[in-house]
Amino acid sequence: MPEVAGVALRDDELARIRERLGREPSVVEVHAFDAQWSEHCSYKSSRHLLKKLPTTSERVILGPAEDSGILHLGEFNGERYGIVIAHESHNHPSQVVPFEGAATGIGGIVRDVLCMGAHVIAVADPLRFGRIDDLHSHQRYVAQGVVDGISAYGNAIGVPNIAGDVYFDERFDDNCLVNVVAMGIVREAEVIHSYAPQGADGWDIVLVGKATDASGFGGASFSSLTLDSADEDSNKGAVQVPDPFLKSVLMRASYHAFEFLRKQGLSVAFKDLGAGGIMGCSAEIASAGGYGASIDLDAVNVAIEGMRPEVVAVGETQERLLWVVPPEITPELLRIYNDLFTLPDIAYNARAVKIGTVTAEKRYVLRHRGEVVMDVDIAFLTGSIRDELPFHDIPAPAGTAERSLVTGVQLDELIERVLAHPDVCSRAPLYRRYDTVVRGRTVIPRGAAGAGVLAPVWGSPLGVALAVAGNPRYSRIDVRLAAEHAVYEAVRKVVAVGARPIGLTDCLNFGNPRKPEHYSELVAAIDGLARAAKNFETPFVSGNVSLYNESASGRAIPASPVVACVGAIDDIANVVTMPLKAAGSVLYMVGRPQTALGSSVLLDVLGRSDEHLPRIDYEAILAQHTLMYEASQAGLLRSAHAIGNGGLAAAACEMAFAALAEGHAPVGVRIDDSWQWTQGRVGNLEAYFGEAGGFVVEVAAADVEAFESLAAQADYIHEIGVTLDRPVLAIDDDAFDLHHLRDIWYAPLREVYP
Amino acid sequence: MSRRIAVLVFPGTNSEEETVRLLRDCGGDAHLVHWSGAALLPSFDAYVLPGGFAYEDRIRAGAIAAHDEMMDHVIAGAELGKLVLGVCNGAQILLEAGLVPGTGPVRHPTAAFTRNGPVAHFVCTHVHVKLSVKPGRSPITAALAPEAVIPAWAANAEGRLAAQENHLAELRNGDHIAFVYAHEKGNVDPTATPNQSALGVAGLVNRSGNVLALMPHPERDAWTFNHPDKRRGDDMLAPSGGAALFRSFVAGVQRS
Fold it and tell me: I need a labelling partner for B211 at 20 to 30 A (CA). Which of A35, A159, A206, A463 fits?
């Protein structure tokens, strides 16, 4: 057995490899299995759990099997269009080197969408950071570096950032979360798969992109270990180096290649190089088609001569993709990348090059300087392995909250504290650094609603909405219900813009699964996701797990299931935005206020706690969502906003702040004493600040009758107030200046992102 | 014969698709020309340089692209009187090449769009720009109304005009300031300018009026569905708003 440093394979796994090979594995083979059998690649402790998630519906073109999932969006001019969606994390790298880690996160997820034959149309980023006050300068440095990295990469490649969220919590002090979502558009007849198609025996394996270097060596197993600050310097070598400039050219060259292949009418394979590098990608693309592969490492375009074969084989140099094409196509493919888009002039030794062949024999063979350095059964290398880990059932907390909250704090002070809370305050200082409108397809940009909306098909009224959610405070109380709330919130934000939610992706960020308390959280969270997704009829079509989010001191992140929801819009003329439109409208709350305030922003600003999360009454909510959809189609909603952190009060303020633009007549809000519209079922504070969900909607006085007649089909529709012709928030007998409140709301993140 | 417009794609350009689509929707015969096809450029009648990060903004925005072979053809065409429009990174390239403001020799820039103030980072925000020369000053703006206000998105890290005092005076006196930042109703004050640009400048035109450099992107608020205040019942797919400048450009090209 060779001594191999920096490998996460366990002794029992090594013994299994030795037994199967009938010999000692070579150094290259040890590294290959280390990458391929890491949690990152193999999902060995999560795959069987993920099977519980619903993954099919009439909308699903491709479920979670390849680099991205695909959902049917709609038809235009006789063509069927699909939305390609992928979700990933780059948590460990971003904690170690925030700028590069976050940038390569965007870079990787974009390739996952691109390789399906899609044009990449949007990215979104759910972020979770530690405390960012003056006493936590390192955490602040991470929070700034991550945003700058996302900005630098996404802006350069010309993909708009249309959605995202951010939370700040001390339990992320040692491990930030950088989740990334990418979305693409593809004609369904032109999807390119990530497996060698039928008849691919003898086809060429063509590597395109950046010259392979030593960066990102050991990245897959690095992300499957806990972070040790003493190893920070050596960990930095496991982080890849981003090159958005090269990626921008690679994307355009690939779009050109798609056109060429479309004209040929050929079925080929295309796949992103991620974890496990050349080895991981070529083994999976061949194996998934029922083939083997033979790769010549000497053919690989390298940045440095004399690298060890295992570094060339499994290193995770960025900006690379792999094609499997018939040999007669290869010359034109090489010409597109190397001559038309001049890859070798764009970055040192970047190019497209044939590196191997698909074989009928189901072996995976690597050659280096004429010698075979790896020769294994390809199914053994890429096949599913499974870790049985202990867990226990996490029971839901018993009972419900019954008593109304009482506090001596005045309402105006409560509103100000809630608006200045890190989970409520304006995100504009952060997302202003992202290009949110490149490509010219934006229907609703960031800041104008809880979901971003694009018109992805040129000349067509089809629209697509995207929103993300996942409140880490909730999982403190009940991780199963927290996961359900993540789905509900993402769905709710999509419903608020007038879209139909059609599918989900998830990123499951948890602590070390070898500790039963964390693995049990994962089991419970997946249970919750499955329950919510079934109820909303929104299948999961792609996703990612990120385990081992834990520092050497044993401090783990809060269980963080993060969800993104895709919404379909038949006609972008019917979208609904968040800014209030006019004085004299009637305001409604669609949804049921509850007494439970557990983990709410309100309790946080009061320093209180409560062990009850709002419950989710799916039947009532589905009827409310139907109402929202029908009202938006009928043009009855002037504006709408999903209620979330900070409750109804924060939602109403955000709608009014968005209407305070220069040159527009101000629109204010009057909310009636909640006793009048809840009949005292909940107290005032629960009504104004509760986070049970629902919507605030603005209906023109002339449309009230039509809206109320539609609303008769749903329960819990409350008329809560009116819009005013002056910039105030009036609640019962109090009135607060909206400009003053807006300044309070805008200030906190401005400190971090000036 | 229809006049052909080339939309230039340098390595790193990222706004070419919406630019070429908008030109076509405005009646232009527009085509993408990539850097490896530079030799095709002399056969075109007009040039549009879209936004992005040409050559990765190495050295500074526009510095390398200004010396690209494609720019040799653009400069030669501009000297013949062909119309040239640069948006965002395209504007930066035109300034770096010395075509705009064109008060010195070509490739001798006298002004630059450089790092934003007060904080030097990328800012993406909705803005309005106001035509501050007479429409007839340039064939590119000739079809716009006097003092036309056009919506656009500023999306850059280097959009602040900077020049020495004497050069700024030349810009003012030579009628080079084509567009300034303004509020939606056309009123101009410092709060309308997102980046502390000198004199509130958003766009500059050269002496002979055939080359225009504009920092914000009108093509990102150019179809009705892009508008923040779109209304139900409007034709969402119609070019409008920022399309006015492109329509005027296309009209200018067809007259030329």
Answer: A159
